[in-house]
Structure formats: C-alpha cells, structure tokens
Amino acid sequence: MANNYMHSDEGETIFIPPIHPPPLLDSLKVHRLAETGALVVDLPSALTDSINEVLTLDRAFFAEKSDFKRKEFPAAEGTELGYYHVADEKEYLTFRHQNANASKVSQSLSIASARFWSLAAALLHRILCDLSASLNIPLESWDNLLDGCLSMPASRSETTPTLLRLFNYFPGAGSAERHTDTGLLTICIGTAPGLQVWEPSAAPPNGNWIDVGSQATILIGKTLHWLSARSLRAGLHRVVPNDEGRQSIVFALRPSLRHPITDLRPFGEPRTVDMRVIWKEIKGSLFSVNATTKIREAQKERLKARGHIIGEEDDWNNSSEARGKDAVHGHGPEVGRSGCG
Q1: pTM
Q2: What is the pLDDT of residue 178?
Q3: Which residues make beta-bridge pairs with 171?
C-alpha cells in the first residue's frame, strides 16, 4: 500500500490528501442500498435548509390559480418539463433548467430549486462514488455520464435528462403506482407518510412495503442497475394516499447524453454502447406513473402489445436480462417492465 505522507527537505512529515473524497456511507449502508435499491439517509444541514426553502416557496406556488401555474411553467416534453395537473390525484412542477422569464414568485422558486439541485446532486454523486468503489468501478468513469447534470442548466438548450420534480399530492387521493425510476440515483423527500419502498427480504413471502414517512430516501434507478450488470437492485417504490395530502421533492440524477458513446470496460464489459439508444430503450419499456389515468392506461396497453408484463412486484430486478442483447452500434438492450417515476 502506498504511503499517504512524504518528507520535506527539512525532514518534516507532510501528509498527502486522498485522491478522492472519503466514503459518505459505511459498508453496511452501501450493502443495504445495493441489495434493496433503497436507503433512508440523514441529510447535511445545508441541504435540509434548502429543502425547507423550496417547500415554503412551492407551497405558495401551488396555492396560485391553475391558469397562472400553466402560464409560468408551460408543460412540455410529455410530463418531463413544466406544470402538470392530474385530476383527483396530484399536481407537480418539473424543472430541467432555470426559468429566467418567470414572475417574481416563480423566479424565487426557480432560484431556490437551482440551489437545491446543486446540493442534492453533490450528495448523490458522493453516494454513486461509494457504490462504485464497492464494485471497483473507477470514479472517473462517471465524468462523461454526469456532464451537465450536477447543476441546474441555465436554459432549455443545455438540458440533460436529469430533473427536479416538486409534487403536491391531494388529500386522500394523491398516489403513484409501484415503479422503479429510470435514471442513476433519485432522492425523495416528503412532508408526511405516503412514500413506500419494497423491502425484498421482509415478510410476507417475497417482501413487504415499508413506509419511510418523511425521511429522505435514496433510490437506485434502472440505468444504474443496467450499468452495474444487475449488481445493484433498482428500488421499487410507490406512493399511497395520505388523508391530509403531502408535498414531496424528487431529484432524479440521470445520465447525460452529451457524450453518447460510452465505454463499458470500467463496468466490466469490453465494448462500447450508445447511451442515447440505451436511454431510449429503458424509457420505452415504461409507463409514466405521473401521466393522467387515460394516458397511463394507453401506455400500458402498448407495452402489453409488445410483450411486457405489467404489475409484477419486482419484475425488473428478477428478469433474465443483464445488459440485454447487443447494444453496440444502435442495438439496445432488452430492459425491465415496470413504471417510471
């Protein structure tokens, strides 16, 4: 093992700083996250303060009239950008970039959300490094995959798939079907019980749903599951109604597509893939739990017609595919069959 110190010309011992930051999670937490796909974590005070600021401002935003909300943040790219309302369930606002043209109220929310984005991304980056170290994946392997993702882009032309979503679930009705997320890692923070994660090792026979309350929760997504050759389980979760309603903040760290050709050798496989194809295949295997009921059901029917099985508890993690068939030169993988948050 190399020494972590050296001696100066004067004989003074000089300690050399580590090349990478120290682990954030201990080995037991890393193992639990890898095995279950979900982990409750404590947050640094700066991130907690940022969460409180965003929740205060988004509460004021959601109290505005619907026409105002739609005008400030027009819906675009399906459910992937802007304000969206699902009748009798929830409303939510998705950020993919800063909104420089919004009113004073919305601009304050946009600025606060950008601050939260940077802090949450830094936390997930650290956790991604811890998971990588456990699998002997070089940390620099993520540089291109995270390019442009660690701070909120200034404009729509600079966006990556990474997003921040602010939810307002309606009392007694707001929910989301069981699903696994599409990206690398997600952090979810709620103001009340409702988010439940699937604990595969708990009774009854195949596992059990555990409500995390208002604790911050990390979830592994399908892309990280795929890149790890199924070593890391994608975190199955759902949202059940809360009688009083609830707010939540969801930040999904997804792969950047700015450098589409990805070398899989650091991940244990001697080939390259086009991440644009992989991302399209993963997203194309899902239905959106955040779309309206009519759209969700239509998406499910299309998936069934393609041979996907909808509704199995953990079908993504238990499927026979690893990285699927040939994903080189535009041929994507056979991927999982569950919803997308």
Answers
A1: 0.84
A2: 87
A3: none
3-state secondary structure 224-247: HHHHCCCCCCCCCEEECCCCCCEE
**Measuring CA to CA, how many Å separate 160 from each of 83, 141, 157, 214, 249?**
18, 18, 9, 28, 19
**Judging by DSSP bridges, how do beta strands 90-95 and 163-169 pair with one another?**
antiparallel
CA neighbor of 223 nearest in space, from 157, 166, 276, 156 = 276
Return d(Cα 286, Cα 268) in angstroms, integer: 26
Residue identified by tokens 């600021």 is 53
End-to-end CA distance of the chain: 44
Using CA of residue 103, residue 106, residue 108, residue 112, what is the dihedral sign? Answer: negative
257 three-class SS? coil
Residues of the chain with pLDDT under 70: 1-11, 13-22, 202-205, 285-341
Beta-carbon-side half-sphere exposure of residue 118 (alpha carbons within 13 Å): 12
Report yes or no: 53 and 250 within 8 Å, Cβ to Cβ. no
| Whether 90 contacts 170, CB under 8 Å | yes
What is the chain's percent helix, strand, coil content, to nearest 5?
Answer: 35, 20, 45
Cα distance between residue 170 and residue 91, in whole Å: 8
Q: How long a stretch of residues is the chain?
A: 341
